[in-house]
Amino acid sequence: MSLFDMLGKDAAIEKIIRYIHSNEPAPAWNDWYVGITDDITRKLYEEHKAPYNKSIYVSVDSVATARSVGRFLINSYGMDGRADGVEYPRFVYAFRKLPDTDPPA
Question: pLDDT: is 76 or 86 the higher one?
């Protein structure tokens, strides 16, 4: 991962929102979960059991950006999730909650 792959707040939010709209043109925002982490594989795919075809993650340029993006998506869009609890998050992720994910739909 290079510095050029890391996104700022606005670009990260836009990428996540566009991805969700590509899956659901009129999404029920509370059916999507957003979180922050320093270990994307462990958190998104092992702990949450998110499917690859209903999830996205972005690398962000700072810890502050990760927290800010997560809080924005939760507070402004009504997405489920958490934007805290990780000391040095560098990824923001989102996934569609389904019966087999944690948390489930």
Answer: 76
